[in-house]
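re the bet — no i am not wrong, look at it urself. input seq straight from the record:
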Amino acid sequence: MKRIKLFLIISCLICGICFSGCGKKEKEEPAVTGKTAELMFITIGKGDAFLLKTPEDTYYMCDTGKKEDYQQIKKVLEKKQVTELKGIFLSHGHKDHAGNVKNLIKDYPIEKIYLSKRDDASYEKVDMQELADSYQVPLEYLEGGEVLDLEGVTVNVWIPERCDYRNANNNSIVFRFQYGKNSFLLTGDMEYGEEAAYLQSGEVQKTDILKLGHHGENDATSVTFLEKIRPTYGLITGNEEENPDSVNPEIEARLDAFDVESFYSEGDQLAWDFILNGEQIQIEQLKE
């Protein structure tokens, strides 16, 4: 009888440990809350401007397009009833990425602006520190390696180790956003040189949505890069009318070879709206 009782006690302990272990594994799975995050690819032609909605209904801009794009960007913000921005993420300082920081600061309360600590090249025509100080908006200088929590969306930050003064495009911050099992990668104007460094960093992961580097031109998005990322969707921040190089036949063929569905910054929609529930991605057109 003692042996039987001892066996039962040991069995119960083993079962308890096993179920406890299973519970820990479940906690490690990406959380799906029933809420959604959204990535809005704003239609502005050649230029990067994305609006991110978190599961907690807070909003961030990721790059801000050119000055002449502001009315289109504002239409998207008004359509989504945005009254304030938790932050602006800047890949780098070129005018087709950072052109509307001042307009946004003037029109909306902004909690913080994120930019690279190492990039002394692409901001040569704009003093972001002076601009931020004028409107009392804090700057957060990123060094790479940061992991940020945006109300349920995780952001991994990667930055090249050295500033490229010859080609400022290659100073772009790479932001990888993750919500549950859904992910998207924003690469700024990254060209082959920076792309190679990113591949060597060990930080590259499979990603659902890839914003192609440098507007989809044929100086970025190598076969090796696509093999590593394996995206389902490719976002190209250009169009044939404004920037014929962004509709590059070689890049198009490369994307087709990897079964990547491509979206260009053209058409009558205000934005392409990628809705992420943590498991699946739904795509809608945001119209006026």
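see?? The chain has a mean pLDDT of 90. told u. also Residues 208 and 231 are 5 Å apart (CA to CA). so pay up
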